[in-house]
Amino acid sequence: MAKKTQSKKTSTGGAVRNSEVELALPVAEPEQRTYVAQSLGRIDLKIDNGPSLDAFRRVYAGLLASGAAFADGRPVVHANDVVRWIFEQVSRRI
């Protein structure tokens, strides 16, 4: 569920809509001796054009605009930081 939190004008006069999205993620303990349990946490990810890429760009822009940072205080700057930040948030809740 998304809720509108703020709207402002861009330098070109267009409206920018800022929102927050709450997302329920299923989590489970990985079964022993499976690929998931032995995963080293490396992700090679390409998001093709379409709704997923748009969603990624919006999350990335939102994190930059909000000044999001990791627990150690390092700011979210790079595209790969988006994935790291999301999983850091998940790790705080499980």
Question: Overview of this structure, please?
Answer:
- This protein is α+β, with helices and mostly antiparallel strands.
- The chain has one domain (2-93).
- Helices cover 37% and strands 16% of the residues.
- It has helices spanning 35-38, 51-66, 79-93, and strands at 2-9, 15-21.
- A two-stranded antiparallel sheet has the order 1-2.
- The longest helix is centred in the middle third of the chain and has 16 residues, at 51-66.
- The protein is globular, with a radius of gyration of 16 Å.
- The model is unreliable at 1-7 (pLDDT under 50).
Percent strand equals 15-25%
Give the distance, in angstroms, between the N- and C-terminal Cα atoms.
Answer: 21 Å
Global geometry: globular
- Side by side, the strands of the main sheet go 1-2
Question: What ranges have pLDDT less than 50 throughout 5 or more consecutive residues?
Answer: 1-7
Number of domains: 1
Structural class: alpha+beta
Total number of helical segments?
A: 3
Q: How is the main sheet built?
A: 2 strands, antiparallel
The average pLDDT value, as a whole number, equals 86
Helicity level: 25-40%
Q: Could you spell the SSE succession in H and E letters? A: EEHHH
Number of strands: 2
Cα-based radius of gyration, to the nearest Å? 16 Å
Summary, kept brief:
Helix content is 37%, strand content 16%. It contains three helices and two strands.
Task: List its traits.
94 residues, alpha+beta, two-stranded antiparallel sheet, 37% helix, disordered N terminus
